[in-house]
Design brief:
Elements (H helix, E strand, L loop, with lengths): L41 H4 L1 E4 L3 E7 L2 H4 L4 H25 L5 E9 L4 E2 L5 E5 L2 E3 L3 E4 L8 E2 L4 E8 L9 E5 L2 E3 L2 H22 L2
Antiparallel strand pairs: 1-2, 2-3, 3-9, 4-8, 5-6, 5-10, 7-9, 10-11
Length: about 200
C-alpha cells in the first residue's frame, strides 16, 4: 500500500514556476525543506536497472528531493535545472504538459556496441503507465543511442502530469523493472525529519 510522505507537498516546486510539480495533496505540508542541511548522496536517491548491455540510473529532479542531498550535490542538480529551464519550459508548452515530472536518466555501457532505446523507459504510478513525453539530451553520445564499455549517455526525461513521487512507483526498461522507490521513500522521510531538526538547531 502506498503512503504519502510528510514532505510530499513541500516537494512540489522545481527550480521555479515553470518547473512546478503535480498539484498538492490536501492536508500536507506546504513548504520546501531548507537548503544546505541535507546529507544524502545520489546513490541514496537514484533508482537503478541493469541489463546485459548497460546499467541505467534514474534520478528524480525534484526540488524537494534534491534539497535533502548534500549541499554540493544539491547545488549541482539545481544548476542543471536552472541552466536547462528554457528548454524544459519550451518542451512542456509544446506538448501541453502543465505539471511535468523530470528524471535524469543515465545509461552506462557494459559491453562494446551496446545499443539502447530511450523510449522504452517508463514509469508506473498510481496504476498508470507513463511514457516520456520529451527527452532532452545532455551528452553527445545520446544521439547515437549506442555505447561502448564504460561510456555514458545522459538526458533529462519529461513525463506528463500524474506521477506522484511521494508514493510508490515502478520504473521499467524493456523487460527489466525496479520498485525500489518504496525503500527510497523511507530514506527520504527520515532525512526530511533530520533536515528539519538540523535547521531548527542552527536557527532556534
Amino acid at each position: 500500500m502506498s503512503r504519502a510522505l510528510p514532505w510530499s507537498l513541500a516537494c512540489l516546486v522545481l527550480a521555479g514556476p515553470l518547473l512546478a510539480q503535480q498539484d498538492p495533496a490536501p492536508g500536507l505540508l506546504d513548504t520546501l525543506p531548507p537548503v544546505g542541511y541535507g546529507t544524502l548522496g545520489q546513490g541514496d536517491v537514484a533508482l537503478r536497472l541493469s541489463t546485459e548491455l548497460y546499467d541505467i540510473q534514474i534520478m528524480p529532479l525534484h526540488e524537494g528531493i534534491i534539497r535533502l542531498m548534500a549541499p554540493d550535490t544539491y547545488a549541482s542538480f539545481h544548476r542543471l535545472l536552472e541552466s536547462r529551464a528554457p528548454e524544459l519550459a519550451e518542451s512542456a508548452a509544446r506538448f501541453g504538459v502543465r505539471d511535468p515530472t523530470y528524471f535524469l536518466v543515465t545509461f552506462f555501457g557494459r559491453q562494446q556496441n551496446a545499443r539502447f532505446s530511450p523510449d522504452l523507459l517508463t514509469v508506473t504510478s498510481q496504476n498508470q503507465v507513463f511514457r516520456p513525453v520529451s527527452i532532452l539530451p545532455l551528452t553527445p553520445l545520446w544521439s547515437g543511442q549506442q555505447l561502448n564499455q564504460r561510456e555514458t549517455a545522459r538526458a533529462i526525461y519529461m513525463f506528463a502530469d500524474g506521477i506522484r513521487l511521494e508514493n510508490e512507483l515502478t520504473v521499467s526498461y524493456d523487460r527489466f523493472a525496479t520498485s525500489a522507490w518504496a525503500t527510497i521513500i523511507r530514506t527520504l522521510d527520515r532525512e526530511w525529519s533530520s533536515v528539519q531538526a538540523r535547521a531548527a538547531r542552527e536557527n532556534p
